[in-house]
Amino acid sequence: MSNLLLQLHEDLRFREGLSACMNCGVCTALCPAASYFEYDPRHICQIVQTGDEADLESLLKGDEIWQCGQCLSCKARCPRGNVPGYVIQALRKLSQLKGFFMYSEEGRKQLRIKRAIGHSILTTGYCVHPRLVDPAVHPEQGPVWAWAFEHGAELYKLCGSAFYDAQEGGLRKIPQDVLNELGSIFYETGAFKLWEAIEGEEVKTKNKQER
C-alpha cells in the first residue's frame, strides 16, 4: 500500500466512504458538478482503489477534488454504499496537509476561503457578514453591492435587521463568550492546525518565488 493511501486510511471519512467501488458510474451520472466541470467521482474512486502513489499525488495536486459541491447525492444512490463525497473530503484534507493544494488553481482558493469565511466566523459569528464583503476585494459583486455596502447600516435596518447591534434580530452582534466558544471548537477539532498548514504553504511558495 502506498504511503499516501496509508495516510488516507487514517481519515475516518475515507474508511467510511470507500469500501467496495465497482466503477458502475452511478455517482458520476447523478452528480451535479459532473454536469458542469471535468469532474468524475467514479474516476477518483478508481484512482484511490488502485493505490498508485504517482496517480494519487497527481490527484492531490489537481483541480478535480476541489470541484465537488458536497451535496452527497452520491451517498443516496451508490449500490455498494460508497460515499465519494466523503472520499473527496479526506483527499482535500490530505492535499492541504501535504501542501499539494498550492499546485492547483482551484486548490489555492482555500487560502481565500480560510481568510474570508474562516475569519468571519471567529470575529462575527457568521460565515459571511456584509461588513466583510468589501467591494474593493470583491468587484464581481457589482455596483449594486457597492452601494449596499456603503449604506448597509441604514439599508439592513429598514429590513428589520439589527446589523451588528447588541439587540435581537438578524445580523445581531454575537456576544464575545459565544465567539470564544466557537474558537474553542476550532481548536479542539484541529481547524487551527489545518489553517497553519495552509498559510505555511503560502509562505513557502512566496519564498521560492523570491529566490
Automatic annotation (TrEMBL):
Write down the Pfam families for this protein, in alphabetical order: Fer4_8
Q: Where is the 4Fe-4S ferredoxin-type domain?
A: 12-42
Q: Which UniProt keywords apply?
A: 4Fe-4S, Iron, Iron-sulfur, Metal-binding, Oxidoreductase
GO molecular function (one): metal ion binding
**Species for this entry:** Xiashengella succiniciproducens
Q: What PROSITE patterns does the record point to?
A: 4FE4S_FER_1, 4FE4S_FER_2
- Show the stretches that span the lipid bilayer: none
Gene Ontology cellular-component annotations: plasma membrane
Gene3D superfamilies, A to Z = Alpha-helical ferredoxin
Q: Which SUPFAM superfamilies match?
A: alpha-helical ferredoxin (SSF46548)
Q: Per its record, how is this protein called by name?
A: 4Fe-4S dicluster domain-containing protein
